[in-house]
Amino acid sequence: MSLNTQARPTSRPAEVDVLILGAGFAGLTAARELTQRGLSVRILEARDRIGGRTWYADGLGRRLELGGTWVHWTQPYVWAELARYGIGTVPSPAPAVAHWWEDGGPRSGDPLELLARLDEPNRRLTAEARTVFPEPFHPLTQAALVEATDHETVADRIAALDLPPGDRALLETFWTLNVNGSIDAAAYTQALRWVALTNGDWAINFEACASYKVDGGTARLARAIADDTDAELWFGAAVEFLVHDDDAVRVTTADGTTHVARHAISTLPLAALTRVRMTPELPQAMRDAVHEGQAGLGAKVWFRLEGVTEPFVAFGEKDWPLNFFQGEYPDGDGIIVIGFGPDASAIDPTDAAAIERVIGRLIPGARVTAVRAHDWVSDPFAGETWPMHRPGYLTHALPGFHAGAGRLRFAGSDYAHGWGGFIDGAIESGLVEARRILTEHADAGVRLLAVSA
Ligand SMILES: Cc1cc2nc3c(=O)[nH]c(=O)nc-3n(C[C@H](O)[C@H](O)[C@H](O)COP(=O)(O)OP(=O)(O)OC[C@H]3O[C@@H](n4cnc5c(N)ncnc54)[C@H](O)[C@@H]3O)c2cc1C
């Protein structure tokens, strides 16, 4: 990959075949596919690093995944990339104990007991997964069924199960974790889609979400893909304006530079599209989706907890500022813990005392001695965490993003066909959109040959 990080005096750099907006997993994958087949590619990345919503950074005396982390063999695209580059996985530790909140107080027990409590309610909630999504990588094969369900929220469907209060509270907090946001804002179809991707098994889905990490960190995989392309990579290139027609795409970045290409792939998160003006504007349904954003607006924080040394798993209630905890790395007389919460604005991720107050409800007396986090929701180049769709997104907006607009295409985990919201979906959509451009290119070549013959 050739890096172009110097100050850029030119207002009109050389034209390329394809501009890629964003150097996360979708952008890097698309760049590799296109350059390896001979197309010239320039990636415009607003930040000064690759990886996007994955970020393997220093913190708490080690390296920590501040964003996307876990991968699984049920995720075919990321698994293939790991095999391609000879990168393994490392397991998160099996929890020795579970803590949860019930009837107004803390409870502790065997993690299997907690899983067992979640089993039947989850089976009932997701029983239709394979009926509505028989082919999860083609989510609209049963369009009528999806349409009939896509207006409902996860909260609606949990309420309809009419569970005993304790089971209902546990199921609500479990899905609040999965949404990383409010279950009142999250589409029920997204819950079904997730579970359909693990053959209808919610427990395997949970395993896929929080069990196996990339050995050497997500940055290692992102770097391996980046090293496999000779695309130009421009850091500090925040796209602000985009004009597209049937012939070309013109993209202007914050410093006034305009880049021109025959095609462009935007891999910007849905929320980050609010900052890009487009001419012509996107169709109304897509603009509405950009305006509404995703439901994943929560927090992920790392902290060191003193007084606990055994790996544990813990659930608070759905509206706590942090409602899920996983003890990840034993650390002397403490343990380094990941916490998730549904609303990034409800917790200051740098405030150890605030975090201690929440975890202290479940593990009284434990002390938080250090914290590390990134606020993805306030980050202008993310604006969301993992993309959990709102009601209607799947049926009304996603087909438009898949179709693209003229020479502009959309890739990224917000627009994936399969594992939407995951690294896998980002890679999948990068492959799909690169292939479509390659096919168009090849067709154009054939047409030119036919004209000149
Ligand atoms: C806290 C958290 C935890 C997660 N946990 C997991 C997990 O355990 N497992 C999993 O599989 N997934 C997880 N995810 C989701 C996963 O990280 C993302 O879905 C995936 O990395 C998205 O890749 P992408 O290429 O689609 O988008 P991104 O990674 O967001 O890449 C888009 C790129 O576009 C750039 N950009 C934005 N705006 C502009 C602009 N105007 N101009 C130029 N560049 C711009 C951004 O800087 C970014 O680099 C998590 C995400 C978060 C935030």
Describe the protein's topology.
Blueprint: E1 2-3, E2 16-21, H1 25-35, E3 41-44, E4 56-59, E5 62-65, E6 70-71, H2 76-84, E7 89-91, E8 97-102, E9 105-109, H3 111-125, H4 129-132, H5 143-149, H6 154-160, H7 165-179, H8 188-196, H9 202-210, E10 212-214, H10 218-226, E11 232-234, E12 239-244, E13 249-253, E14 258-266, E15 277-279, H11 284-292, E16 299-306, E17 312-315, E18 324-331, E19 334-341, H12 352-362, E20 367-373, H13 393-403, E21 408-410, H14 423-452
Parallel strand pairs: 1-11, 2-3, 2-14, 3-11, 8-17, 12-15, 14-21
Antiparallel strand pairs: 4-5, 6-10, 7-10, 8-9, 12-13, 13-14, 16-19, 16-20, 17-18, 18-19
Helix pairs in contact: 1-14, 2-14, 3-7, 6-7, 6-8, 11-13
The chain binds flavin-adenine dinucleotide.
Protein model, in words:
- The protein is α/β, with parallel strands linked by helices and 453 residues long.
- The radius of gyration is 22 Å and the shape is globular.
- The chain has 14 helices and 21 strands.
- Among the domains are: 2-52 and 217-293 and 385-452, FAD/NAD(P)-binding domain (3-Layer(bba) Sandwich); 114-200, Alpha-Beta Complex (Polyamine Oxidase, Chain A, domain 2), CATH 3.90.660.10.
- α3 (111-125) crosses α7 and α6 runs antiparallel to α7.
- The strands form 4 sheets. Strands 1, 2, 3, 11, 12, 13, 14, 15 and 21 form a 9-stranded mixed beta sheet that branches. A 7-stranded mixed beta sheet has the order 9-8-17-18-19-16-20.
- 49% of the residues are buried.
- The mean pLDDT is 95.
- β13 (249-253) and β14 (258-266) form a beta hairpin.
- It is 34% helix and 23% strand.
- It has helices at 25-35, 76-84, 111-125, 129-132, 143-149, 154-160, 165-179, 188-196, 202-210, 218-226, 284-292, 352-362, 393-403, 423-452; strands at residues 2-3, 16-21, 41-44, 56-59, 62-65, 70-71, 89-91, 97-102, 105-109, 212-214, 232-234, 239-244, 249-253, 258-266, 277-279, 299-306, 312-315, 324-331, 334-341, 367-373, 408-410.
- Bound molecules: flavin-adenine dinucleotide.
- The site of flavin-adenine dinucleotide has 40 residues, from α1 and α14.
